[in-house]
Design goal:
By secondary structure, this protein is of the alpha+beta class. The chain has helices at residues 36-46, 93-109, 120-129, 138-162, 212-226, 241-250, 259-271, 274-292, 294-306, 322-343, 351-358, 362-385, 396-406, 415-428, 435-446, 459-472, 516-522, 530-535, 550-563, 573-580, 585-595, 602-614, 624-636; strands at 12-15, 19-22, 28-30, 56-57, 64-65, 167-175, 181-190, 196-205, 232-237, 254-257, 476-477, 507-508.
Length: 639
């Protein structure tokens, strides 16, 4: 038997036949004349390492390297799991997975690089919070953990898509800092809780030119991979010609041009009016100067306080987005007195810029004010249709009609206002004229309880919806009553009896009602009241309602929907359908196919800002598959 000089004997007591009993778990371990087995037992089962804590002498130099030593136990005192410190106890696997998941969520949500996991400061923080936790290395994070989490979230989304009634898509392309092209495809569907769900499907590396054929094949591949080829009826994309070809190649029935992009194109017609374009050039030069001069910016803040004006910063526009030009001009008009006071300050001495601001005549200022007041409705329409949590396809035609009426010139309008309205209005009337697309948008407006009574919805629209209700062939459950005996003692053979003068519309078949007849027959008969017992035999079926045809059922349900009070504009149409779907079983099923369609492709474009943070200057060499996984997880995970 080995002499008790090793530290491991603090955890063991001698047994016969070269065996030792562990004080922590009472396990018997063979010593075989040494302590190797005892040390392995402590390391494997109790996470106590004694080899790394012994003093090591290097042969080369003879220097002694002192390693951290384990806290010594008093002689003769047996240790157990309750007397060990927190750092000596083994961390449960469930707790390890919980911490690892939290680390992954931090890296994904905050767009941190994979190298974060190997940062000494980050590891020190983890060690301080939980000394027993061993974080994964960078390789395991990128090649094992992130892909595993991606597959897990992907499988859940796949199952959710398979259970959905209909799916719509939006897509757009972008280029990273590393000059790599990507195509992002997003999907939209109404889930079981009647909520509009928007998810990213894929962000694929796109090589070569962005031709319609290539984009179309890519879209077709995405739909096949996700098993939604038969669920997608509409794709929302921008108005580029290659996207028109792409939708045709993908096999999807309908292409919906992004309404926000359409408004941007129409608004740019107004910005190209010569008199306005000249003024915008002057305003832009002044705003650019303030953005480049920190001294002028500080003085501007002083003048805003002195003049009791809002402490707003000047806005520089982006020529590809008309709303930024609108906001630049609006802010310039608001801050014009403070701007002029700043430029006249002795600390600035910019006579050229002062001349620009003071040189704007009253007619120039009037043009700016007319532009802001008349284009305000365009900005509001753009913001409304960029909503992702509420259906927007039904709003396209009502908004288009309202904008068209707004931009009709009036006799009292000034020359500039007339030219602005003609420029914008003439562009708007050419949009969404394709017959099939027009029919779809009219039906979407009809099935939106907020817009069902708008001018764009006519009798032909209701007729088409009626035909589609019949095609859906929703099976209803008839309203039946228990058959009662007549005076002759016979039971009339009927499937349904008239309880009221006007029969109720058929209710949808629910899962729990599939075997309703069996449940009723098996349940004990309800106890009759005294009056029922006395007058039971006098109850007579006076008539029966013949079964209605599919068209009659559709007409009745459609008429009931048309007569119901229109929802207000602040109501969520999906919440309305969730409340009323039992009353309109056929229409509600049809409405799902329209409510999932987005009027804009903003959902895909919003990915650009996210990916700009992921594929940053310090991560320009990120693998394309990791870009796809990180964007997917960032947008689809619930944190």
């Amino acid at each position: 038997m080995a002499s008790k000089k090793s530290k491991c004997w603090n955890y063991f007591c001698n047994e016969k036949n070269r065996q030792a009993k562990c004080n922590l778990c009472s396990a018997v371990v063979a010593t075989s004349g040494g302590t190797t087995n005892l040390i392995f037992h402590l390391n494997r089962h109790h996470n106590i390492s004694l080899r790394s804590e012994t003093t090591v002498t290097t042969r080369a130099s003879g220097d002694v390297a002192q390693q951290p030593t384990e806290p010594k136990c008093e002689p003769g005192v047996k240790t157990n799991p309750w007397t060990l410190s927190a750092s000596q106890r083994k961390l449960p696997l469930s707790r390890t997975n919980e911490i690892t998941t939290a680390v992954l969520q931090y890296i994904i949500h905050d767009l941190r690089p994979f190298s974060t996991i190997e940062s000494p400061v980050f590891r020190k923080m983890l060690s301080t919070l939980e000394p027993r936790y061993q974080p994964p290395n960078r390789t395991r994070l990128s090649e094992e953990l992130i892909p595993a989490l991606y597959e897990s979230i992907k499988s859940k989304l796949y199952a959710e898509l398979q259970s959905s009634e209909a799916v719509s898509l939006t897509c757009d392309g972008w280029t990273s800092r590393a000059t790599q092209s990507f195509l992002t495809v997003t999907c939209h569907f109404v889930n079981k809780n009647w909520e509009l769900s928007s998810k990213i499907l894929q962000t694929d590396h796109f090589e070569g030119s962005h031709t319609g054929q290539k984009i179309g094949f890519e879209l077709k591949s995405v739909m096949t991979d996700w098993g939604i080829s038969d669920k997608v009826g509409v794709i929302t994309v921008d108005n580029a010609s290659n996207m028109t070809v792409a939708v045709e190649v993908s096999g999807v029935d309908l292409k919906l041009g992004c309404f926000a992009h359409t408004l941007n194109l129409a608004s740019n017609k107004a910005l190209n009016i010569p008199s306005l374009d000249k003024i915008l050039g002057k305003v832009r030069s002044v705003v650019t100067y303030f953005h480049k001069s920190n001294i002028s910016t500080e003085i501007l803040k002083e003048k805003q306080v002195a003049l009791q004006m809002p402490k707003h910063k000047l806005i520089i526009d982006c020529k590809t987005r008309w709303n930024s030009t609108y906001q630049m001009l609006q802010r310039f008009l608001e801050q014009r007195p403070a701007i002029l006071a700043t430029l006249l300050d002795d600390r600035v001495k910019r006579a050229d810029k002062t001349k620009v601001v003071s040189g704007l005549s009253d007619s120039d200022i009037q043009i700016c004010e007319d532009f802001v007041s008349n284009m305000d409705v365009m900005l509001t329409a753009t913001l409304v249709l960029c909503e992702e949590k509420s259906p927007t396809a039904g709003l396209v035609l009502p908004l288009l009609y309202k904008l068209t009426e707004h931009f009709k010139p009036k006799a009292t309008d000034s020359t500039f206002v007339k030219s602005l309205k003609n420029a914008v209005g003439s562009d708007l009337i050419t949009r969404y004229t394709d017959p099939n697309l027009r029919y779809f948008l009219e039906e979407a407006s009809a099935l939106d309880p907020r817009t069902k009574n708008k001018a764009c919805v006519d009798e032909e629209t209701w007729d088409r919806i009626e035909d589609k209700m019949i095609v859906l062939d929703v099976t209803g459950v008839g309203i039946t009553v228990k058959s009662e005996k007549t005076e002759s003692g016979e039971i009339p053979h009927t499937s349904s009896a008239v309880v009221e003068s006007t029969p109720l519309p058929a209710l949808p078949v629910l899962d729990e009602d599939i075997n309703a007849d069996e449940k009723i027959s098996k349940s004990p008969p309800a106890k009759k009241t005294a009056l029922e017992t006395l007058f039971d035999e006098e109850i007579v079926i006076t008539g029966q309602e013949p079964a209605l045809s599919a068209r009659e059922n559709a007409k009745r349900e459609l008429q009931l929907y048309k007569e119901k009070k229109q929802a207000t504009m602040k109501e969520n149409p999906l919440l309305w359908w969730k409340t009323n779907y039992l009353l309109f079983p056929r229409l509600s099923k049809l409405a799902v196919r329209y409510c999932c369609v987005q009027a804009t492709s903003v959902a895909s474009e919003r990915v650009f800002s996210t990916t700009g943070d992921i594929v940053s200057a310090t991560r320009a060499c990120l693998k394309t598959e990791n870009v796809n996984a990180l964007v997917f997880l960032k947008k689809n995970m619930q944190f």
